[in-house]
Design a protein that fits this description.
The complex is a heterotrimer of chains A (97), B (487) and C (487). With 97 residues, chain A is of the alpha+beta class. Chain A has a domain of 47 residues: Histone, subunit A. Chain A contains three helices and three strands, in the order ααβαββ. In chain A, β2 and β3 form a beta hairpin. The radius of gyration of chain A is 23 Å and the shape is flat. In chain B, α2 packs antiparallel against α3 and α9 packs across α12. In chain C, β14 and β15 form a beta hairpin. In chain C, α8 crosses α10 and α9 crosses α11. Classes of the chains: A alpha+beta (97), B alpha/beta (487), C alpha+beta (487). At the A-B interface, α1, α2 and β3 of A face α9, α10, α11, α12 and α13 of B.
Chain lengths: 97, 487, 487
């Protein structure tokens, strides 16, 4: 087996971090696919980036602000219209523990 | 009389303003055409016929009363389902947003509405814009009107197919790594990714914020320039929006390319490029030379790192942008009530997202995670800097850079979907301009057998004028843009 | 706790103060005034995390943050930008929080400051590690305690409110010191006018405690500064108890349960805090110039320490008094208003430092909740001056004023507390006392102490309204007369 860039265990851990459940078959399949993909991505190791700054933003803009003014909020209907579970005007989320 | 749905936007507007036809007739003609071809092509996810026809009728009334109407009066526009339209379902072709109805309009929608464009429906796409073939759509793939067994390209496959099938006059797509240009090439239409920051992203459902732009997909270059003029311009609601006043891009359409210097990177004709594609695109470049431009072959060695850098950045941003889909405020929610939030969220996202979306979320999360951030995400950002520097150097010497849009012609449905990496490789020619931030267009350049091939023209940021000028010259001296498939 | 043990407790605080002085939220134009509003009515696509919405920075939030950083003696960064802190939780509208970071190339708004507070009559310097801006998550409501509630209700009105995060070094060595520090910090923030600590939830605190060099425990969900001392006391006790039993103290995050007054372990699998910080692509960096800082400095209100020094100079108060009066803005404001109406600062200070504060504490009121005004206190002092009530009675009146909010005149009238200063009247009453206490009178003729009893009785009979000095004089005179007569 070639070099492993990500193990199945790592895939499970990352899937948990990302709150994305995977089936057992998917865990196997994705691990295999990820290793192929990451092997290809690691091409970038060839480039010397020692003294190169990262590009965080494309445009050279700074201090993009808005004034401290109040504008109308969403109507009652609009703010909750897409929530599937509600209680009165509250949105209902699952329990914490 | 020629069917109204086959007209360009310019022709439609001219005819309507001249009184030769009405907005209602034009819009109705489109819906008739949609009914004719939708079973075969499946370009649309939502159609807004009733409202569109009413709106068209209103426009006709305005015209009849001699009142002023907008620059796109009566023109039927199809919008990729990744752009928010108030009170109209916006699904991103995902089960996660199957029932999502935005409470607001994207800025581009507001702008088009102010110019009296008529929204006729929302088009199919790859799920959350992640793909190059429109095959990852939860609502089935769109077919390429040129060959219904083949993909239309992606992720703006629905918009492109609609345009070439005359099932829309104008269309909007979005381009993160080639999602406008790829389907434009595969469907033989004109598709432009504007300079990053030229068109507001407010209302564009985010996949990768530092890479994507909304752009026009049209039947020809004039229509492209016209639609761009409407949607471009500063938006205070988008902090990444360039502070530029709106321009009329149709003013830049000259037929002459005399003196234009073209750079042709050999990396764009690399290993994965088919002979046919290379031949067709070189033919295009030589045509431009014959029209007075000059070209030179160059090398941009950092281009071969563009694809991995692009995907690492895009997936990382996507993993964060798509975190919001947990089923509480909107989106898919499992019916079980008594599981805790961790489990519920994980299950909502398992069912709501297709495998490609989940793959990219996980890979993106991995690239940002502790211990891997420097090696993957941060490294990719540095590679991005190198690529941008290479382009900046090249554009000191050349006005435009040209190559194929896609290394291959449209492939068969199902051919590449099982192997993600081979699908990612299709983006090799388009991702560089997303990393660079400059504009890039794909225009019809010829056919490989019966399969369309597009030519990509790139320029420096905010030099859409050069791109449109070169494209227009090429188009007006060829007739590829006039070919339509038999459906 | 002994002196030695105190040094072995290390407490660091992470304070979140809402910028209540703003009109709108930090990244959107929803109103900042969300308290008491119906749930999910002060929301918009941005703070609700609706797909496609984009944040835009509130300029005033940045200005207020700079002002606070200056008041905390921090180094202001020349350039700062926002990061995404990625984690899932039901109170997150996007499942990432737009915040700032001090690693991976991130620069918070300000670093390396300090606050000086008086602890045990000494100046203690508490170092500030950093100050930065971020957004508040939504408010969760549970039917029942958090760990047994069958579901969670979410109100996004609070989502997107501007928060200033202030992090200290672990320089605090006891819960009392933490309380004193927080008091000082609140006073600074209120004097600056950026945050009103009397608003519910406006100032929150997380604490990090380690004992005897042991593992650091984080305590979250402390809803007010008042609760901090309680939470810290409990946690220190809990850890000491574990250590005494030679049990292991876990390095973990615990949740303060205000009702049950305990910290509980929220031990879920998600103990790993891999927040996958990366720069927020939708927001541009902020450049803070010298001139910006100078402009803000020039308009900075008077800070508590400066006010304290001014009180010493202007009103001739002892340093300790000035310190106490300026420990809370509302207290200092009350004092100065009173002095303006009645220019006897030492007298007002004496009353406020002792009885006033004591009665406030007894009534469990914040000074901001007081119904009486400075003018009312002044009225009371004037009544003493005029001889209408004695100083002793005034204490009773003041207590009543604080508890009921009635004016001194009202109270004196209702309770019949006018001072009895008339010699004639007192003489008559003294006669009565002597008549009713024959035995005591006999004793008093020879025993000094018994005389005090009689004076006490006279005071009692007058319900304290007698002028004590006069009462004293009258009783002693009567006794002297009696002695003479007996001889």
């Amino acid at each position: 087996m070639e070099k492993q860039f990500i193990s199945k265990k790592q895939v499970e851990h990352i899937a948990w971090l990302a709150r994305v459940e995977l089936s057992e078959e998917e865990k196997e399949l994705f691990t295999k696919q990820f290793n192929e993909i990451l092997e290809y991505f690691r091409k970038i190791d060839e480039l010397d980036t020692e003294k190169v700054p990262p590009t965080y933003h494309i445009l050279d803009l700074t201090n993009i602000f808005r004034k401290d003014e109040v504008k109308p909020s969403l109507s009652k209907e609009d703010s909750t219209r897409n929530a599937l579970k509600k209680e009165g005007m509250y949105l209902k989320a699952p329990k914490i523990i | 009389m020629e069917s109204l749905c086959t007209l360009t936007a310019r022709e439609t507007i001219t005819k309507i303003m001249a009184g030769e036809t009405t907005a209602k007739e034009c819009v109705s003609s489109i819906f008739e055409r949609v009914k004719e071809i939708e079973d075969k092509v499946h370009a649309y996810l939502t159609l807004t016929e009733k409202h569109a026809v009413e709106q068209a009728a209103e426009i006709d009334k305005k015209i009849a009363r001699g009142r002023k109407v907008g620059r796109l009066a009566g023109v039927a526009v199809a919008v990729k389902d990744v752009i928010c339209t108030k009170d109209i379902p916006t699904t991103c072709a995902s089960r996660m947003l199957e029932k999502f109805v935005p409470p607001y309009d994207a800025t581009v929608i507001e702008k088009m509405s102010m110019e009296d464009a008529v929204l006729i429906g929302k088009t199919n796409m790859d799920e959350f814009a992640m793909g190059s073939s429109t095959e990852t759509s939860y609502f089935d793939a769109t077919r390429n009107p040129w060959d219904l067994s083949r993909v239309p390209g992606g992720s703006s496959g629905g918009s492109s197919a609609a345009i070439i099938a005359d099932a829309a006059i104008l269309a909007l797509g979005s381009d993160t790594g080639g999602s406008i240009r790829c389907p434009a090439s595969f469907c033989s239409v004109t598709g432009l990714k504007p300079t990053y920051g030229l068109v507001s992203r407010y209302g564009l459902i985010a996949y990768a914020n530092s890479l994507e732009q909304i752009g026009p997909i049209t039947k020809d270059v004039y229509d492209c320039a016209l639609l761009l003029s409407v949607i471009a311009g500063y938006d205070p609601r988008d902090s990444t929006s360039a502070n530029l006043k709106a321009k009329d891009y149709t003013m830049f359409l000259k037929k002459s390319v005399r003196g234009i210097k073209i750079g042709v990177p050999k990396e764009f004709f690399g290993e994965g490029t088919t002979k046919d594609v290379a031949k067709i695109v070189w033919g295009g470049i030589e045509k431009l030379e014959a029209l007075g431009a000059s070209y030179e072959e160059i090398s941009l060695p950092s281009l071969k790192y563009a694809l991995p850098a692009y995907y690492l950045i895009a997936m990382s941003e996507a993993s964060s942008n798509l975190a919001r889909y947990d089923g509480v405020r909107y989106g898919y929610r499992i019916s079980e009530e008594d599981l805790n939030w961790n489990t519920t969220f994980s299950k909502d996202r398992k069912v709501g997202f297709g495998p490609e979306v989940r793959r990219r979320i996980i890979l993106g999360t991995f690239a940002l995670s502790a211990g891997y951030y420097d090696q993957y995400y941060q490294k990719a950002l540095k590679v991005r800097t190198i690529i941008r520097r290479d382009f900046e150097k090249a554009f000191k010497k050349f006005d435009v850079i040209i190559g194929p849009t896609m290394p291959i012609p449209p492939f068969k449905i199902g051919e590449k979907i099982k192997d993600p990496l081979t699908l990612y490789m299709c983006d090799v020619d388009t991702v560089p301009s997303n990393l660079y931030g400059g504009p890039a267009i794909s225009i019809p350049c010829g056919f490989s057998g019966s399969l369309p091939t597009g030519m990509q023209i790139m320029a420096q940021p905010f030099r859409e004028d050069l791109i449109l000028r070169v494209s227009y010259a090429f188009e007006q001296n060829t007739s590829y843009h006039k070919h339509k498939p038999e459906l | 706790m002994t002196e030695l043990q105190q040094l072995e407790v290390r407490i660091g605080l992470e304070i979140h103060a809402q910028l209540t002085a703003l009109k709108s939220k930090i990244f959107c134009s929803c109103s900042n005034d969300y308290r008491g509003k119906e749930p999910n009515t002060v929301v918009c696509p941005i703070c609700l995390g609706i797909p496609g919405a984009l944040p835009v920075i509130n300029e005033k939030a940045v200005e207020l943050a700079i002002m606070v950083a200056l008041a905390l003696n921090c180094k202001i960064s020349e350039s700062t930008f926002f990061f995404r802190k990625n984690y899932f939780y039901p109170d997150m509208s996007k499942n990432f929080q737009i915040s700032q970071y001090d690693r991976a190339g991130g620069i918070p708004l300000a670093v390396e400051g300090h606050v000086t507070a008086t602890v045990n009559h000494d100046d203690k310097k508490i170092k500030i590690r950093r100050v930065h801006l971020e957004e508040d998550p939504a408010r969760l409501v549970h039917p029942g305690p958090i760990d047994t509630s069958p579901y969670t209700l979410v109100d996004y009105n609070r989502s997107g409110i501007a928060l200033l995060e202030i992090v200290t070094e672990p320089d605090l060595n006891s819960p009392k010191e933490a309380r004193i520090f927080l008091r000082k910090l609140r006073s600074i923030l209120e004097h600056l006018g950026v945050s009103d600590g009397s608003l519910e939830g406006a100032m929150r605190c997380d604490a990090n405690i380690s004992l005897l060099g042991g593992p650091r425990v984080e305590v979250k969900n402390i809803s007010s500064f008042k609760e901090v001392e309680r939470a810290l006391r409990f946690e220190i006790m809990r850890q000491k108890d574990l250590m005494t039993r030679k049990a292991h103290v876990e390095h973990e995050t615990r949740h303060w349960d205000e009702l049950r007054r305990v910290t509980i372990s929220l031990r879920t699998k998600e103990e790993e805090h891999d927040y996958r910080y990366f720069p927020e692509p939708d927001l541009m960096p902020i450049t803070i110039t010298r001139s910006m800082i100078n402009r803000i400095k020039a308009h900075m209100p008077e800070l508590p320490d400066a006010r304290r020094d001014r009180f010493v100079k202007e009103y001739g108060l002892p340093a300790y008094d000035a310190e106490v009066l300026t420990s809370e803005k509302a207290l200092a404001d009350f004092f100065e208003k009173a002095v303006r109406l009645y220019p006897h600062p030492k007298e007002i200070s004496n009353w406020m430092m002792t009885d006033f504060l004591r009665y406030l504490y007894e009534a469990e009121l914040e000074i901001t909740e007081l119904k009486i005004k400075p003018a009312d206190l002044v009225e009371m002092l004037k009544l003493i001056d005029k001889g209408v009530i004695s100083g002793k009675i005034a204490k009773v009146v003041l207590r009543e004023m604080i508890q009921t909010g009635k004016t001194p005149q009202q109270i004196v009238k209702e309770q019949g507390l006018l001072r009895i200063g008339g010699r004639e009247e007192l003489d008559k009453l003294a006669e009565r006392v002597f008549a009713e206490n024959a035995e005591a009178v006999r004793d008093a003729l020879t025993d000094e102490k018994a005389a005090h009893y009689l004076i006490g009785q006279l005071m009692r009979i007058t319900r304290g309204r007698a002028d004590p000095e006069l009462a004293n004089e009258i009783i002693l005179n009567k006794l002297a007369k009696l002695r003479k007569e007996q001889k």
